Amino acid sequence: MKATDLLQKQHKVVADLFEKIEKSKDDAKKKDLFEELASNLAAHDAIEREIFYPACETKMGITDLLGEALAEHGVVEFCLYLADEARGEDDFDYKMTVLKETVQHHVEEEEKEFFPKVEKALGAPLLEELCVEMEARFEEAKASDFRGPLHENLRQVLDGALEPAPAKSAKKPVAKKGAKKTAKKAA
Ligand SMILES: [Fe+2]
Ligand SMILES: [Fe+2]
Question: Is the pLDDT of residue 101 over 70?
């Protein structure tokens, strides 16, 4: 099997889990399905980031599609974090909708635009080799708790994105009353 076939198979598993969660009326079952979905998504994220995308970069360079895919992984991780934080709460369902739509967009671009180019550039023998490595890493990542790596990845993204904290002597900006509360709620 080629790495691109493995990834498409995993996309299908994730899509089925989203559907099952949406249809489930039983809260305990919904929680179990969410754990299953989250560990699948996190393990899929790991094999693409650690093995598949670097192999694509070696052969194709950082293309716009690869750059976009990497940025989208960060967005998916953030949506997954938000849904995880909302487990058992009223806002879980709509946070799951945002996660599903974000994943669907990313998957569609991978399957329709990126994978055909990757298959041409990497060729079947290399893709089959990568698949073996990716399958083993997927099982390993799926067996461990997804929250540790997820939080660590998000921390790294934010560390790179945020301005260094202002020096203590710097004048604090005047925050609008209630702004912090509203921002927290929106997240
Ligand atoms: Fe994918
Ligand atoms: Fe991806």
Answer: yes
